[in-house]
Amino acid sequence: MSDPAGMLLSVRGEARQVVPPDSATMTATVEVTRGSKAEAVRTAAANTDCLTADLAAHGGVPLQAGTERHPLTWSAQSATTYPERTLDKKAGIHELTGRVTAVVDVMISVRAFDLLDPLGAALTGHETVSVRQVSWHVDWDNPGWPEVRAAAIRAAIGKGRDYAAALGGTLRAVEHVADAGLLGGESAQGWFAAGAVARAGHAGGESDPPSLDPVPQELTAIIEARFRADGASLTL
């Protein structure tokens, strides 16, 4: 029998769109090993200064409030030391060498992609510097976001119309539109996503450095919608 108030139909709508990335983030590692901790720290700091001076020569500035969308920024993320060990193949154990390794991680953000090639060449010129990871990002206000979200709503409307038609009815009104999970109590985290990452091995490893070619990003939007339908019925 028909519901005079109209039947409620709840659906999900999903859409995807591929867009160029807005920025790239590189993790550059400065790694040196010396005879003492103090010497290793001093050398790592000096090599980090050389790296940031090279970044500044390419127009880079330190990351701080107000420079987030500068064409090239950097920030030192961590500085650590650890005793060097070598493998004793006969004993099958790692033994201390008496030397100390100092490591400084520098995050480099690039928004002007014409800087990627010269920047890659500059990084290669630093013997103690390796690029461990490159990740590509889409800004929260990228024009692709409203487009893919609108497409997800259109997909939900189309699905609702299909369901209503299968029951002999038509959609009358929209009751709710929400991020996925908000209508049903399910976690909404992860339903709006974008990203891709290229990784390389740690400094001194055998892995090739990650590519600096921009990787297109897929934006994904999933929404939930609830519609009221007229004329829908189920004959038992």
Task: Write up what this structure looks like.
The protein is an alpha+beta fold and 236 residues long. The protein folds into two domains: 1-21 and 140-202 and 216-236, Translation Initiation Factor IF3 (2-Layer Sandwich); 23-137, Alpha-Beta Plaits (2-Layer Sandwich). It has three helices and ten strands. The radius of gyration is 27 Å and the shape is elongated. The strands form two sheets. It has a six-stranded mixed β-sheet, covered by helices on one side. Strands 1, 7, 8 and 10 form a four-stranded antiparallel β-sheet that branches.
Keywords summarizing the entry:
single chain, 236 residues, alpha+beta, Translation Initiation Factor IF3, Alpha-Beta Plaits, 2 domains, 6-stranded mixed β-sheet, 4-stranded antiparallel β-sheet, 3 helices, 10 strands, 43% strand
